Amino acid sequence: QVQLVESGGGLVQAGGSLRLSCTASRTIFSVMGWYRQAPGTQRELAATITIGGATNYADSVKGRFTISRDNAKNTVYLQMDNLKPEDTAVYYCYLRSIARIDYWGQGTQVTVSS
Prior knowledge:
The protein is mostly beta strands. It has no helices and eleven strands.
């Protein structure tokens, strides 16, 4: 059983920064990333990163968010800068194992006040 531990959410003013982290208990993951879901909307991609370091960002976060990973620690990070009120959402850690099994974190709330 893989366990995911997320941290780093919170309340910040517009223009501020937060850093999310997600650590998995075991297994090597081909893809690690973050999705987000605002109230009344569908869950959407924020950013992903492959084991080789290739990244993919939603257009709405490009230039403001930076995803990275530490394979030795099985940890993925999301540095969020210049946050906007529309970034307010629950952010979910997403991991895909080498065996193509998907795992989701419980979610961490990010709230950006104007």
